[in-house]
Amino acid sequence: MLLQKYFDVRKKMINQALDKYIGAEDNYPPELYQAMRYSTLDGGKRLRPILMMAVYEMIKGKNNLRSLKVVLPPACALEMVHTASLIHDDLPFIDDSDERRGKPSCHKKFGNAIAILAGDALLTKAFGIMLEPNNKKKAIICLDILTKSIATRGMISGQVVDILVTRKKAKLHMLRDIHIKKTGSLLKAAVLIACVLADAEEQQMNALADFAINIGLAYQIIDDILDEVGANEILQKETGEDERNEKVTYPVLIGLEESQKQAIKLLKDANNLIKNMDNNIVLMEFVKMIRDRMP
To answer: What is the CATH number of the domain that holds 201?
Structure first.
């Protein structure tokens, strides 16, 4: 119960800040602001920004909202980047997804052009927000972490390879690389930014970065499994898209049972990386939450 309250309180805090950062829907041009708000504010687990907050609080040994003031801008920026990636992923010429978070995708609601520009606007707004913290030296380091996690060796690289690789040519190491970049890179950015802001030691930073990659890869493998078995309610979008788009997935390459084993091992490794850290209860809960998604 206490842990659920932890997540609920921080999710509310993030949502209120996102509402302020994005701006009112009647701002000009209203179609742009409406699309940004529609995709960002209505739904979403806020997994990445809450992870950033949890790591920061764990390192600082503090568990109160006042201490999170320095983390809130980059946490919101990260969520904007994530939302932008979802808007673009759903477009007809990429994943062609009609539904996201249990409602029509941005392009189905506002059209392809506005969806593309709404994603672009969220990305650029995120970069500006990253520079808000008073400590500009740390802010620039954090911005560098975020941009590298997005760009040609990060999330976008993973998205491109995901589009280009066919099932016939795919190998397991290629799929692992796609998932690490598409999903793991932003989770790793969340952890690294929190470490910079909290003045973490290098050894702890490295361990937490590995933790983020492990839970990101496990999360995506479980997503592949959920899509394969048709778990629409959990995914909050139409399943079967991977097969329709001939996407490479873990179940396609190694089967459902082996995919489950891989995910469980990754989560066990993630747990081992943090089990001896002080104040780790929330991060342990992250591992449990991802494990509980397994069908």
So the answer is: 1.10.600.10
Domain that holds residue 196: 2-292
Encoded tokens for 152: 């040609």
CA distance 174 to 248: 9
| Number of structural domains the chain divides into | 1
Give Cβ neighbours of residue 177 (< 8 Å, ≥ 6 apart).
158, 161
Q: Token digits for 203?
A: 């050894």
Chain segment 156-200, per-residue pLDDT in tens: 999 898 888 766 677 888 889 999 998 999 999 999 999 999 999
Give residue 17's pLDDT.
Answer: 96
DSSP the chain: -HHHHHHHHHHHHHHHHHHHHH--TTSSSHHHHHHHHHHHHSS---HHHHHHHHHHHHHHT--SGGGGTTTHHHHHHHHHHHHHHHHHHTSTTTT--SEETTEE-HHHHH-HHHHHHHHHHHHHHHHHHTT-SS-HHHHHHHHHHHHHHHSTTSHHHHHHHHHH--TTT--HHHHHHHHIIIIIHHHHHHHHHHHHHHT--HHHHHHHHHHHHHHHHHHHHHHHHHHHHT-HHHHTS-S-HHHHTT---HHHHH-HHHHHHHHHHHHHHHHHHHTTSTT-HHHHHHHHHHHHT--
249 near 175, Cβ under 8 Å? yes
